[in-house]
Task: inverse folding
């Protein structure tokens, strides 16, 4: 699950030129749901979203208060385009986003958990699946990105319009293991070379000592 958080003085969502939701000071949160997201991803984003200290303390000390400590509102907007894949061509690929029929239920679960973790009256929402116009006054500006996974969502598999994503990418256990093994191999090679070098130096020193004694004897 991905989120873009914007610290805002105000924010609103309109559908068909009608404002359906608005907030005062708080956060405007764009929420994207990936094909393999689970309730654990919801827990991560909810916890981070509500606990990040993006506001100054009353004495002006920066980065001291969260939206909960501020008593601010949160405007949540579903945003499947956060999972756009743009590595090939110029047309965004959205196959890594969860299909709407499943994403709708996951998004509802996210909103419910937000209300449970904070104050339901302070959690506002756009309209899932609608063409929305989102307006805000970004305070700062301060914009923070969140990702419940420490990797990229890549690949296709069963479960979405073209298949479910397999969370690999940024952290790949096989690649990490291969890097560790390669580093260990190089370390052993270096140690062996260093050992050979020390052995060769010791042998050269012995030869030099022998030659010096022979020359002394001849003298």
Result:
């Amino acid at each position: 699950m991905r989120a873009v958080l914007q610290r805002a003085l105000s924010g609103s969502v309109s559908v068909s030129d009608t404002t359906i939701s608005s907030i005062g000071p708080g956060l405007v949160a764009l929420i994207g749901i990936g094909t393999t997201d689970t309730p654990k991803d919801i827990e991560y984003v909810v916890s981070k979203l509500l606990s990040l200290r993006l506001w100054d303390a009353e004495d002006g000390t920066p980065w001291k208060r969260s939206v909960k400590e501020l008593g601010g509102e949160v405007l949540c907007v579903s945003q499947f385009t956060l999972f756009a894949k743009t590595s090939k061509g110029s047309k965004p690929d959205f196959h890594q986003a969860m299909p709407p029929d499943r994403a709708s239920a996951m998004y509802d679960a996210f909103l419910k958990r937000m209300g449970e973790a904070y104050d339901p009256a302070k959690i506002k929402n756009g309209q899932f699946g609608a063409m929305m116009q989102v307006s805000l006054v970004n305070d700062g500006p301060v914009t923070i990105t969140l990702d419940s996974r420490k990797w990229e969502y890549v690949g296709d598999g069963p479960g979405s319009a073209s298949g479910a994503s397999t969370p690999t990418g940024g952290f790949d256990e096989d690649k990490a293991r291969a890097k560790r093994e390669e580093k260990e191999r190089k370390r052993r090679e270096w140690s062996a070379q260093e050992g050979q070098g020390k052995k060769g130096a010791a042998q050269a020193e012995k030869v030099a000592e022998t030659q010096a004694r022979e020359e002394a004897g001849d003298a």
In short: The radius of gyration is 29 Å.
